[in-house]
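subagent[fold] <- orchestrator: predict structure for attached chain, return tokens only, no commentary.
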Amino acid sequence: YVLLIPRLYERIHLHRRAELDKLASAARAHSAVRARLASTCTVTLSRRTRAEPRLAHTFHLVLGPYLRGVAHLTFRACLLRPLHPSFFAALPQLTNVRHLELVKFYLGSFYELQRVICAFPLLEEVHLAESKMRPRTRQQVAPLPNHQGPSTSLRAPQLTVFRVNKLEADVLRGLVAWMSATASLSSIKTLEISQHLWNDADAGPVSALLVHTAAMVEHLRLKNAGFGVQSLVFAYHPRRDPPRSAGIGSRPGHRFEH
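subagent[fold] -> orchestrator:
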């Protein structure tokens, strides 16, 4: 038991509002709990059913202040609009986050996604999966970045690992435009893309991402690309003919898969 105490709260996985409330209550009441939470390295918030309250909406208020050492932060099916402005304002208190994972997130604007990504100054790895971007009213529509530059003054972090999985084409297009305009794509060493590409509209943002990262990426994995994989390989290696079968990359460490 004594040997296990240092590992208590090393990784926290919360799936229900009751779990979050109990842990926050224990932290407020006991200094020993607060001391252990200060060394927590991984936090995952995951909503299993739609009936469950949204953990992300209160996490930053009741538990965030005790988790200054968290390096890996995951929001799974609980980062959903509308989000109160205090959520974005409180995220930077997690000063040590280096790995951010957003899965099945549903935000009101691209600007909200930018604010989440930019909240962590030490961020190195980002994994984004299964996004939806819908404003609550027409007045809240935030334009996606375009080739002329970013839509806001927020500067994207210098990432070394970037993973995208089943993002809406417009969201991925906005990310590529924003990150390329702020030169953050130039630092990426590992790139993983899992997108269904059935037409030019789907393949366009992925092609742009490959072109912007071609010079620096050491490990590349492209999967679930459908019929668009050969055109992407050709875009990534313009001096070579597209491979006749998927799964053949032109460089060591690069994989192209259906």
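orchestrator: received. Logging for downstream: The chain has a mean pLDDT of 79. DSSP finds eight helices and eleven strands in the chain.
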